[in-house]
Specification:
Layout: E1 2-5, E2 23-25, E3 32-34, E4 44-46, E5 53-54, E6 59-63, E7 66-72, E8 77-84, E9 90-97, H1 112-119, E10 126-128, E11 142-146, H2 157-161, H3 168-176, E12 183-187, E13 199-204, H4 212-219, E14 228-232, H5 233-245, E15 251-257, E16 265-270, H6 275-279, E17 290-294, E18 301-303, E19 315-320, H7 375-378, H8 386-395, H9 398-403, H10 415-420, H11 427-442
Parallel strand pairs: 1-13, 2-16, 11-12, 11-14, 12-13, 15-19
Antiparallel strand pairs: 3-9, 4-6, 5-8, 6-7, 8-9, 10-14, 15-16, 17-18, 17-19
Length: about 450
């Protein structure tokens, strides 16, 4: 077991933590939905139409460019609606459950690659470069499993995994047949994953230490022409359980927390359930408008109560919308309650950077030109020049992008830098667009 110490990064200490490990049962969800945008790199082509009956584990759609890559239904029921947006883009596939717990069974004697593709678990994997669902024919150099989430208010992946931890060894065994290299697991020092058959690396340091891309960069970086896969330990356990039982386990444990939640808690639910079934009666009862985020505050998707639980199906955060539109003296305020991760306001004198804070959705500034201050590098424990890479992406200078590490990064790796950015640039959007353009140009 190798110990890797990371000094760059920052742990944002938000209010609304879960203080007990008790897991509650969710309310019954009227509908479930799969959101295609959660599976980057897949262009959906429907296999089912509205009104069709589906089993849990049965394919809803496949990738337009590769029909072997499928996304499956988390419940048995009727395909109620295919929600479309501009230019008929599929925004969500909504399933009305019928209460039948029957699910499709898979023959695990088949090629592991075939089983993963048919079951829909392949779509939960990600590859570097490009941070997309892997091509069905790709054979990765190595596979990296992250066993902890270091994002603000993130749930314990050990708790989310629950009793499925017993299937990790089987998952490593299966994944080892798909790669020419090794299967790595990145964990915290307190974890005990030595008997899984994978090579275990222990990470010490602040967020984004839990990001798969950061772990890859500090263990065995991706070079041009190489492909690695990444996944979290919950998905890995799900893979192991599939090959032991022949069925996909679509249950999940969701962390519902944040300053806008009255009693932050863990809730047992099913993938793709409605947010109303998770949040009804759990929000703080006051006049302040709330922002519901599918995921964590740095990388999550803004949602409403009418929305659905997004992949990777384990976290919902609720914060306040803008509490005060106008403040006395604004950025020039000397109030010790004014928050900054830098030594800009007086709160740093009393250790305010690391105290629990109740941050709202206010941007606190406007977009402006990049200032080469080194602040991105302080938030990104990877051997790249982050500010120069962002400039190269904006200019779409392919040679510079390759030289500066475009193949190693994903949008989530820049989420903390985006939070800290005094220029208020949408770094994750810039990186995502850069990766998409690069993929179109090179593939």
């Amino acid at each position: 077991m190798a110990l890797i110490k990371l000094r760059k990064g920052f742990d944002l200490n938000l209010k609304g933590k879960i203080t007990q490990d008790e897991v509650l049962e969710s309310q019954q969800s009227e509908n479930y939905a799969i959101v295609p945008d959660d599976f980057t790199g897949i262009i959906p082509r429907m296999e089912k139409k509205e009104g069709d009956t589906v089993l849990a584990g049965e394919a809803l759609y496949h990738d337009k460019n590769d029909e072997h890559i499928k996304v499956t239904s988390p419940v048995s029921g009727t395909l109620k609606q295919v929600v479309r947006g501009n230019r008929r883009k599929i925004m969500a596939v909504v399933i009305e459950p019928n209460g039948n717990e029957a699910s499709k069974e898979f023959d695990t004697r088949d090629n592991p690659r075939t089983v993963l593709l048919e079951s829909g678990l392949w779509a939960m994997l990600r590859q570097r470069p490009y941070d997309i669902v892997p091509n069905a024919e790709t054979r990765p150099r190595d596979i990296f499993i992250t066993a902890f989430d270091s994002a603000p208010l993130a749930p314990s992946l050990s708790l989310v995994m629950g009793d499925n931890q017993q299937y990790l060894k089987k998952a490593v065994e299966v994944l080892s047949t798909i790669t020419d290299g090794k299967v790595y697991i990145g964990c915290r020092p307190e974890s005990s994953l030595d008997d899984t058959g994978a090579e275990v690396n222990t990470f010490v340091g602040p967020h984004p230490a839990g990001n798969a891309g950061v772990q890859v960069a500090n263990v065995k970086p991706v070079n041009k022409g190489e492909v690695v896969w990444t996944l979290d330990v919950v998905t890995a356990a799900r893979i192991g359980k599939l090959f032991e039982t022949g069925k996909v386990d679509y249950s999940t444990i969701v962390a519902v927390n944040g300053p806008g939640v009255a009693n932050p808690c863990y809730i047992k639910a099913t993938m793709g359930c409605s947010l109303k079934s998770l949040l009804d009666g759990k929000l703080v009862d006051n006049d302040k408008p709330k922002r519901i985020i599918g995921g964590n505050v740095l990388t999550g998707v803004q949602e409403t109560l009418d929305g659905y639980l997004h992949a990777p199906y384990r976290h919902v955060t609720v914060i306040n919308e803008i509490n005060k539109q106008d403040e006395f003296m604004g950025w020039a305020s000397l109030s010790p309650n004014k928050y900054s991760i830098y030594r800009v306001f007086t709160n740093w004198i009393i250790g305010g950077r690391h105290k629990e804070v109740d941050l709202d959705a206010k941007l606190n500034g406007g977009e402006r030109a990049i200032v080469l201050s080194g602040e991105y590098d302080k938030m990104l424990p990877m051997d790249i020049y982050a500010e120069f890479l962002i400039k190269a992406i904006i200019a779409f200078d392919i040679d510079k992008m390759e030289q500066l590490g475009i193949y190693e990064v994903a949008p989530e790796d820049f989420a903390l830098a985006e939070f800290a950015d005094t220029s208020k640039l949408e770094l994750q959007r810039i990186v995502r667009e850069g990766l998409d353009k690069m993929r179109a140009e090179m593939c």
